[in-house]
Design goal:
elongated; alpha+beta; 460 residues
Length: 460
């Protein structure tokens, strides 16, 4: 009997509990070499190629493109080639191997299930197999697969990673011929379109040849009608999102990637932090000439951090320890279609205005094309949400541990201000600061806010 090895999804180096399959690079029955690309997985931070742990035949793939696989769940099964060189079992890869089990215990594992988007549970009929190691990182034990469909935006079905790749390669997804199941555009489709130039962004679509017999005047070609809305899922099963007496207005879908991680992080922050918010207005009336508002705001945060270091800190609620930082790394919230990213502006305390602007532009570009490394999405000492560039004056932004504080900058306005001898119209910026009251006092937060406002009010 052939020796079948099961490969479990490892922790992809970011401490996240699951990842989404973007694309398989092999099919069941294909032969693959050790360390050759097995599949592409999308996490909350990046798209990662997972290499094969064996040389041999792929006997089973667990999940399809768009499925969410929990870390530690079966990803693929292999029949290793006995005549080929394999990674030695004792060979150190620098990673943990195997799902976590109780030391010395032989207790039966819980029944494994597969959760579907139609609801309910389906028992897994696959036999339990020994985990033969991972190639990326330490794993968390788990055995669930959440089946999910690629989102349809603008009439094109594609997962966020494919859309990000198309944006990076300047490919118009509406002109790419899909080859995936149910008309889903895959990574390979985008790469092929970029290589042959058939769907370049902004280029005029190619005109089909018209026979001479068709006549001089042709009726305009009408677009194909979209499928009628139904009360059934893509699998043909009924889906109800409201009581029988209420007409359903939509169908639930699994969160994935960045939005999935955002939901976890925000829920954890809400459960653990004791938030308190202070608000005030920065008076910009004394500014001379046109100035870079973002650079001034960053500089003022740095000044406030140096004046009151208690808010430029990390707090460990379990061990009740506080770490004050001598440097200032500011997490800049960046809003995207896929969800919220917070890249770190490193060493903001030593950058000048031009350096700040260049660094922010680089971070924003790398976020938009999903090329930003995971190392630049963590480790900041305080964060900033510049929500006022869209709308809103004041807010209660969420403090994400281990940070102690977050600054919110509202929409600029021209306000009537009372001055000696009358009134004037001043340009002002609403400022909000939320801090973790476990780690900082109200007085420290108020002094921090005053230092920030005082610096913003200076002419230059």
């Amino acid at each position: 009997m052939a020796d079948i090895k099961t490969f479990y999804l490892p922790d992809l180096g970011e401490g996240l509990p699951d990842a989404t399959i973007v694309e398989w690079h092999v099919k069941e029955g294909d032969n693959i070499k050790l360390d050759a690309p097995l599949c592409s997985m999308e996490t909350a931070k990046a798209v990662v190629d997972v290499p094969s742990p064996y040389t041999g035949k792929v006997t089973k793939l667990h999940g399809a493109a768009g499925d969410i696989i929990e870390t530690g769940s079966a990803l693929a099964e292999f029949e290793p080639d006995p005549n080929a060189k394999q990674r030695a079992e004792a060979e150190s890869t620098g990673h943990h191997h195997g799902p976590k089990k109780g030391a010395g215990s032989a207790a039966a594992e819980p029944k494994k299930v597969v959760a579907s988007d139609e609801g309910g549970e389906i028992e897994s009929n696959g036999s339990d197999r020994e985990d033969e190691g991972t190639v990326v990182g330490a794993m968390i034990s788990g055995s669930h697969v959440h089946v999910e469909q690629a989102s349809s935006v603008g009439g094109v079905k594609a997962v966020p990673a494919v859309r990000a790749l198309a944006k990076k390669l300047k490919v118009d997804l509406t002109r790419v011929k899909p080859t995936g199941a149910d008309g889903v555009v895959t990574m390979a489709d985008v790469k092929n379109a970029a290589a042959n130039g058939s769907a370049a962004l902004g280029a005029a679509p190619a005109r089909a040849a018209v026979p001479a017999s068709a006549g001089r005047h042709l009726a305009p070609q009408l677009p194909e009608p979209e499928p009628a809305r139904t009360a059934t899922s893509l699998a043909g099963k009924p889906v109800r999102t409201a009581p029988p007496s209420v007409q359903a207005s939509g169908q639930p879908e699994q969160l994935k990637g960045v939005r999935r991680n955002m939901a976890r992080v925000m829920a954890e922050a809400h459960a653990n932090v004791v938030p308190t918010t202070l608000v005030d207005d920065a008076d910009l009336h004394a500014w001379i000439g046109k100035q870079d508002i973002t650079a001034r705001l960053i500089r003022s945060i740095v000044v406030a951090c140096k004046t009151v270091p208690a808010l430029n800190a990390w707090f460990d609620g379990k061990n009740l320890t506080r770490t004050l930082h001598p440097h200032v790394d500011i997490g800049i919230a960046v809003d995207t279609e896929e969800g919220l990213f917070v890249p770190a502006l490193r060493n903001a305390d030593v950058l000048d205005g031009a350096g700040i602007r260049a660094a922010i532009k680089r971070l924003r570009t790398s976020v938009e094309d999903r090329s930003i490394p995971a190392s630049e999405l963590s480790g900041y000492t305080i964060s900033l949400s510049n929500f006022g560039m869209f709308a809103g004056r004041y807010a209660t932004p969420v403090v994400v541990p281990p940070c102690v504080a977050i600054i919110g900058a509202g929409k600029l306005s021209h306000d009537v201000v009372a001055v000696m001898g009358g009134i004037e119209v001043h340009r002002r910026m609403p400022i909000s600061i939320t801090f973790d009251h476990r780690a900082a006092t109200g007085g420290e937060a108020a002094r921090f806010l005053k230092a920030l406002l005082d610096d913003l009010s200076l002419p230059n």
